[in-house]
Write a structure and sequence with these properties.
By secondary structure, the protein is mainly alpha-helical. Helices cover 70% and strands 0% of the residues. The protein contains 9 helices and no strands.
């Protein structure tokens, strides 16, 4: 079954059904429209869209809080409805309930997707703007021997010393240090960065 053209008009501007339960008793027979859609009747599917998309759009908008994203969710929901119309069973619930279930699930999926994208962007920005701690450590190693480095570690605060030792003697990443110490990632990065700066300063003064 080919996909129908469902980008008819803004779902927020379609005519809403007037019956208390979504239009099945006083408006078009929605279950029949779904059955006809399952047989590839695009005109019936267009009528189904016009009769129900306002309700679906309203639900999506309440979840995602963005008219643009809500409209995208509606398009995705009706594509799913077209693809799954042959399997619709009116004995399991009404057409509006079926469509709203699809809309709610898809809207929640979009929210989760947006959260993941924002987290990735935030992580990228943190890594892009964070001064490379490894460069500081390489400068320390190049200018001091192992004994001096070990002595220098003793001058750090216990918190800095623990974080630096985990990162550079045990090979832990910043995230692993944070998890091992039970602290936020930003805190772990700050302790390592500040510890290495202090170490370089102390050892540089002893030369």
């Amino acid at each position: 079954m080919n996909d129908p053209r469902i980008d008819r008009r803004d779902p927020g501007q379609t005519s809403a059904d007037t019956s208390p339960e979504g239009g099945e008793s006083h408006g078009p027979d929605l279950a029949d429209l779904v059955r006809r859609s399952g047989n590839g009747d695009e005109a019936s599917f267009a009528a189904l869209y016009d009769a129900t998309s306002t309700k679906v759009y309203g639900l999506a908008l309440r979840v995602v809080r963005s008219p643009e994203i809500a409209a995208e969710v509606v398009q995705e929901v009706y594509l799913m409805a077209w693809q799954q119309s042959e399997r619709f069973d009116s004995a399991l619930g009404s057409v509006p309930a079926w469509l709203c279930t699809l809309a709610h699930r898809r809207a929640v999926d979009r929210i989760r997707q947006l959260v993941r994208e924002r987290e990735r962007e935030q992580t990228y920005e943190e890594e892009r703007t964070e001064p490379p701690a490894d460069q500081t450590w390489q400068e320390v190693e190049q200018s001091m021997d192992a004994h001096q480095v070990r002595d220098g570690l003793d001058t750090l605060s216990p918190l800095q010393r623990e974080a630096v030792a985990l990162a550079y003697y045990q090979g832990c990443t910043h995230r692993q240090v944070a998890e091992h110490l039970g602290i936020p990632l930003g805190t772990a990065k700050a302790r390592i960065r500040d510890g290495l700066k202090s170490l370089k300063s102390v050892l540089g003064g002893e030369r």
